Amino acid sequence: MLLAFAAAAAIAGQATDGRGDAAAMPRPALVLFWADWCAPCRAEMLALPEIERAVAPLPVVVVPLSNWRALPAAVDRRKIRVPDGGGWDYLAALRIPPALPAAAIVDARGVRCAMHSGGLDALRAAALVTACASIRK
Questions:
Q1: CA dihedral defined by 66, 70, 75, 76, rounded to 10 degrees?
Q2: For residues 58 and 75, what is the distance between their CA atoms, to the nearest angstrom?
Q3: What is the pLDDT of residues 2-48, one digit of tens each?
Q4: DSSP state for residue 24 in the 8-state scheme
Q5: Is the peptide bond before 28 cis (omega within 30 degrees of 0)?
Q6: Which among 71, 73, 103, 122 could disulfide-bond with 50, CB atoms 3.0 to 4.6 Å apart, if both were Cys?
Q7: What top-level class would CATH report for the domain 2-107+117-135?
Q8: What pLDDT, in 10s, does the model give residues 105-131?
């Protein structure tokens, strides 16, 4: 288990953003895993503004598991992170079952402290934040 957390921290530290620029994974953060072939994932992106308001000031990061260019144009490309090794490796490192949609809260160390499988909305996102005592100040 410790090895998985160390792997998550290592993977999470190196990424590129949706513009192709080097970008660190913010921590703590709400991480949304997304794929263009996942209909519920596409629907979740429509709720992104409400999800962001529900978890503020925690940043929201979108990790694509397929073509990130297929993300809706409304998604700010600066929120996209493609971890070194790819999104699937990051999903596995956080010990999240490979089923989409999936979301996780990672703490300041890059360790998953809560997760949700299935579509996320503002209420569920707020509940994830509440479940993570390690990110509260």
A1: 80
A2: 17
A3: 333 344 444 445 566 666 666 677 789 999 998 888 999 888 988 99
A4: P
A5: yes
A6: 122
A7: alpha beta
A8: 998 888 899 999 988 999 999 999 998
